[in-house]
Design brief:
CATH superfamily of the largest domain: Periplasmic binding protein-like II
Structural class: alpha/beta
Number of strands: 12
Distance between the termini: 42 Å
Number of helices: 9
Helix content: 25-40%
Oligomer: single chain
Number of domains: 3
CATH topology of the largest domain: D-Maltodextrin-Binding Protein, domain 2
Largest sheet: 5 strands, mixed
Shape: elongated
Strand content: 15-25%
Order of helices and strands: HHHEEHEHEHEEEHEHEHEEE
């Protein structure tokens, strides 16, 4: 048994059983691919692929059982090569981080600065997207580390670690009526105004919706956006009341807005750091200091 045989099996499935494409992917000939598959079948004593004449048409029941093992062996071989490279290059190379806008804009800057001071030879590649896109970048290998609040914990292919807990805040223009309410702000009072907040699936939006639903309220959400900066822009124009992550409030820059505490209104959110399960990353580089 050798890795070329295992690659031939894996790529055959990935290429829809088209051996011409498999040969091109592996830089070999079609008869060479057929030979590798046949020799592996003979060594294992089972038929991996169903055939119609000389064409491969699908996986046999033993083939469906063996395929995950083949993929796992090849992944571990890749991890072994990666580990060897890491011991050679040690503190050099690249690290790709996928994060939502709120994390990249407000949570990561200080951590990235500290990381760069510790590992100046490591190039950081920052990618932004929705929580779902962050998860997909991890699963495809485009990103090494993912940071987001929602969605990441829902993927069994990912290993996630809680980074920190945070709450939402309400932002309004100066002299807004909500600034003059007696006592703590209520959801009923909030629901009397047009709401500007995150798109569904972003930055704790599910906790916002759940809180209103439990009170039997239907808030008038007039604008949604993917990031807090956009939300704050429309709040400054007087188009509604903003509900954003507390970390997105910058006292120096947001001098045209006023913030109201909302931790008593909405459930606490947890930002998670995720990596693809089984993926080997350099042991020499610790997690981003300041996040975990």
């Amino acid at each position: 048994m050798n890795f070329q045989q295992l690659r031939s099996v894996r790529e055959t499935v990935r290429c829809g059983f088209n051996l011409t494409e498999v040969a091109a992917m592996l830089y070999t000939s079609q008869p060479g691919v057929s030979r590798q598959i046949r020799e592996l079948e003979e060594e294992l004593g089972v038929t991996i692929f169903e055939r119609a004449g000389k064409r491969l048409t699908g996986l046999t029941p033993p083939g469906r059982t063996l395929l995950p093992i083949v993929e796992r062996l090849l992944q571990e071989a890749g991890n072994l090569r990666q580990a060897g490279k890491e011991f050679v290059s040690r503190m050099e190379g690249g690290l790709s981080i996928a994060a939502t806008h709120s994390q990249a804009r407000y949570a990561l800057p200080h951590a990235v600065r500290d990381f760069r001071s510790l590992f100046p030879q490591v190039t950081l590649n920052l990618h932004q997207g929705s929580p779902k896109q962050v998860a997909e970048m991890l699963l495809t290998g485009e990103a090494d580390i993912g940071i987001a609040t929602e969605a990441l914990a829902h993927y069994p292919q990912l290993v996630t670690l809680p980074c920190y807990r945070w709450t939402h805040s309400i932002v309004v223009p100066p002299n807004h009526p909500l600034l003059h309410t007696a006592g703590p702000l209520t959801l009923q009072e909030l629901a009397e105004h047009p709401i500007i907040t995150y798109d569904r699936g972003y930055t704790g939006r599910s906790h916002i919706d759940d809180a209103f639903a439990k009170e039997g309220l239907s808030p008038n959400v007039v604008i949604t956006a993917m990031d807090a900066d956009v939300i704050k822009t429309y709040v400054e124009l007087g188009m509604g009341v903003g509900i954003i992550a507390s970390i997105a409030i910058d006292g120096d820059r947001d001098n045209n807005l006023r913030a109201l505490e909302a931790r008593h209104l909405f459930e606490i959110n947890v930002t998670r750091l995720a990596v693809r399960r089984g993926n080997c990353k350099r042991a020499a580089i610790p997690p981003l200091k300041g996040l975990v």
